[in-house]
Write a structure and sequence with these properties.
The complex is a heterotrimer of chains A (174), B (190) and C (357). Chain A is of the alpha/beta class and 174 residues long. Helices cover 34% and strands 28% of the residues of chain A. Chain A is globular and about 50 Å long. The N and C termini of chain A lie far apart (79 Å). Helix content of chain C is 48%, strand content 13%. In chain C, strand 2 and strand 3 form a beta hairpin. The chains are: A alpha/beta (174), B alpha/beta (190), C alpha+beta (357). Chains in contact: A-B, A-C, B-C.
Chain lengths: 174, 190, 357
């Protein structure tokens, strides 16, 4: 019994070693390609429309229902430790929420664009993944009115607490 | 009971605050103020106290925006406003001048009004920079009050964006001239 | 018991409120509150043409205003796909590094004054005037310059600017050594800084802290070296880091950065080519987006612009480094005494203009 277990473990180990030896020729040396391939393999329907804007800068469109899982994957597996910016843009028929996330190790910046319908501007909060997203999401809520589900403290931050408008909306004439 | 009915009995007594103020007015200050002794004292000391007030204008250490940097630099060795007696103080209870040096947002408006109310008389207000005078580059913003004189009476306006430290010192000197012209006695207020 | 420190408080350089919950003298919880200087710049930008926004971008962070107007011009150039001439890039780098020195000197003046070293305030302000005179001969103003333009800079360097700048740099480098001896020789300054306000490396990265505070926690990341923009690739300089994560490390990083800025300025003056300093950019921007990032003296600043084909932007989004760093302040404050608040919050070099926009 014991001999068989050892042999199985050794076989698994040698399989892994073979995979690793094969890996460099399979995955390209360019970090942007590696990133795109990893995301396409793990979330084939959620992330679409990859564009490489310039060296180290990749843009992709993201389905808002998979946002939390994608962000967790980015931080844990792909080494995107720094949350840079979250912007909210209002168009005629939708809201677009743009996430910029940086990886210090690989020197990459990814831009994820999420769409929400006009009558339900809400997405999941990523404040539990990156602490730096906490205040930035509060600011998006304050100025544009986007609700972040699961945020620990979604309150106004820049305007007085009893203000009733969201000033950056296009229908607010200040 | 007897003591409270007859406060000038000459014994050690305790007062309610309202009664104490009434007693002061009747026995000490009010008498002085209404009698010729008061106006005589004022006539003698008016110029001296006025000289002391205008040569030691303490302003509140309150920086809002870019003009606050010029306010800080005015205390630096190159411009040196301390040779005129102008020193920043931290508490509004110890200040003569409220120097407003930036745009006042709607969240800041009650704070500034409260600081102004906490300053004791005599007090003056200087509006430094375009943002305090009229809102500056942000005059048409939803969140900026266009000018601090909408809710606080202003004595001196210093234009500039940002106002140079020399302009700030010139503003203080003009305030000194203004204080000299409006000399008032401390007791009678005339 | 909750104590309110601010918005009017001599410690808070700028308009913000810090509510600390104390148990005796030890801080148990902290809540920073910002928003007293909110001017609605992002909304104001939507009603102005692209060149009209440059003075507004100056007034975002008035401590280092050139960096922000340059950042805005870089974002618009990314949107309009405009190439900036090389001489303009070198002038930009020269002025940005001079602005970095001026901003760090202002921080040092306020920091030293708060910690009791009044002589530090006097000396650093005097040094700052030397560089402000240079800026005045170049742009005409002392704090908010309105100098960059979309497609270059406003005008060329004046006569004798190189000679005066080199003289100022030589003078300043000698004084910098004097300040290090002055501050580090003061026992009280060292006691109030060493071991105070520790922010570990993983917390710093996760909470989004950037700039000198991040480099003081041991992370060697500087946008000028790792994702170079403008002509920083041609410049040879060291990234200043420190491995203790306390207030002394942040002070040390900024002093080293001032030194490195002097070296970059000398190289920029030597390598500057002749040529045009500005090209004319188109009036209308195409439909699309533009993004620019820059290493501000306080951290990483970003501007994201959405253009819609007209001569006014559709949306301007500004990422301010101090906005995110202040949200990490409770992590640095809990467990220390009330008197350490001055050293910790002062060491972050807060400029409320960019926090509140």
């Amino acid at each position: 019994m014991r001999d068989r277990e050892v042999t199985m473990a050794e076989r698994e180990k040698s399989d892994q070693k073979e995979d690793m030896e094969r890996a460099p020729s399979r995955i390209d040396a360019v970090p942007e390609e590696r990133l795109i391939r990893a995301l396409m393999n793990t979330f084939p329907e959620a992330i679409t429309g990859f564009t490489k804007l310039r060296d180290g800068f990749v843009r992709a469109k993201l389905d808002r229902r998979e946002l939390f899982k994608v962000c967790k994957f980015l931080r844990d597996e792909l080494g995107f430790e720094h949350f840079s910016m979250i912007s909210a843009v209002e168009y005629d028929d939708r809201f677009e929420i743009v996430y910029h996330i940086t990886s210090y190790q690989n020197k990459l910046l990814i831009e994820l664009i999420t769409r929400t319908p006009k009558d339900d501007p809400s997405v999941d909060s990523v404040a539990s993944i990156w602490g730096g997203a906490n205040w930035q999401e509060r600011e998006s809520y304050d100025l544009m009115g986007i609700r972040f589900n699961g945020h620990p403290n979604l309150e106004r931050i820049l305007l007085p607490k009893d203000y009733t408008f969201h000033p950056l909306r296009k229908d607010f004439k200040g | 009971m007897k003591d409270r009915e007859d406060p000038s009995a000459g014994q050690a007594i305790a007062f309610h605050s309202k009664d104490f103020l009434k007693w002061c007015d009747e026995v000490l200050e009010g008498v002085l103020r209404r009698s010729p002794v008061g106006s005589g004292l004022d006539y003698i000391t008016k110029d001296f106290f006025n000289w002391a007030t205008r040569n030691s204008l303490y302003f509140l250490h309150f920086g809002i925006m870019c003009c606050a940097l010029e306010m800080a630099v005015a205390s630096a060795p190159r411009f040196d406003q301390q040779r005129f007696g102008i020193i920043p103080r931290s508490s509004p209870r110890q200040c003569d001048v409220l120097l407003v040096n930036g745009p006042v947002s709607k969240k800041l408006k009650p704070v500034l009004r409260r600081l102004y109310d906490q300053m004791p008389e005599p007090k003056w207000v200087i509006a430094m920079g375009e943002c305090a005078i009229s809102g500056g580059p942000f005059y048409n913003s939803y969140s900026v009050v266009p000018g601090v004189d909408q809710f606080i009476p202003v004595d001196i306006y210093i234009p500039g964006c940002p106002a140079r430290p020399e302009a700030l010192i010139d503003g203080f000197l003009k305030l000194q001239v203004m204080i000299k012209e409006n000399r008032k006695g401390l007791l009678t207020g005339k | 018991m909750w104590i309110n420190m601010g918005p009017q408080h001599p410690m808070t350089h700028g308009l913000w409120n810090l509510r600390v919950k104390v148990d005796g003298e030890t801080i148990v919880d902290a809540q920073p509150e910002v928003g007293y200087l909110h001017r609605g710049i992002e909304k104001l930008c939507e009603g102005k043409t692209y060149p009209q926004i440059i003075p507004l971008a100056d007034r975002l962070c008035y401590g280092s205003s050139l960096t922000w107007s340059h950042l805005y011009c870089m974002a618009v150039e990314d949107l309009m796909k405009v190439e900036v001439p090389e001489r303009a890039e070198y002038i930009r780098v020269l002025t940005i590094e001079m602005q970095r020195i001026v901003s760090h000197l202002m921080w040092l003046a306020a920091y030293a004054g708060d910690l009791g070293l009044g002589v530090g305030f006097v000396y650093t302000m005097r040094e700052r005037e030397v560089f402000l005179d240079l800026f005045q001969s170049l742009t005409g103003a002392r704090i908010t310059y309105n100098f960059p333009r979309i497609g270059g800079v406003a005008h060329d360097l004046p006569q004798n600017f190189e000679r005066d700048t080199l003289r100022a740099i030589t003078f300043f480098e000698g004084r910098l050594k004097e300040y290090e001896d002055l501050f580090e020789g003061s026992k009280i300054f060292m006691m109030r800084n060493v071991g105070v306000g520790i922010l570990k490396k993983e917390d710093a990265i996760n909470l989004g802290v950037t700039g000198p505070s991040l480099r003081a926690s041991g992370v060697t990341y500087d946008l000028r070296k790792d994702l170079p923009y403008s002509v920083y690739e041609e410049m040879d300089f060291r990234v200043a880091t420190h491995k203790d994560c306390d207030c002394y490390a942040r002070y040390r990083v900024r002093m080293d950065e001032m030194w490195e800025s002097c070296q970059i300025m000398k190289q920029a003056l030597k390598k500057m080519p002749e040529g045009k300093w500005r090209i004319v950019a188109p009036r209308n921007a195409p439909v699309g987006t533009g993004l620019a990032r820059v290493e501000d003296p306080r951290g990483e600043g970003m501007i994201y612009i959405v253009g819609d084909g007209s001569d006014k932007p559709y949306r301007v989004k500004i990422r301010s480094p101090i906005f995110v760093t202040v949200s990490a302040a409770p992590k640095m404050l809990i467990g220390y005494k009330l008197a350490d608040v001055v050293a910790i919050m002062g060491g972050l070099d807060m400029c409320i203009g960019e926090t509140d926009r």
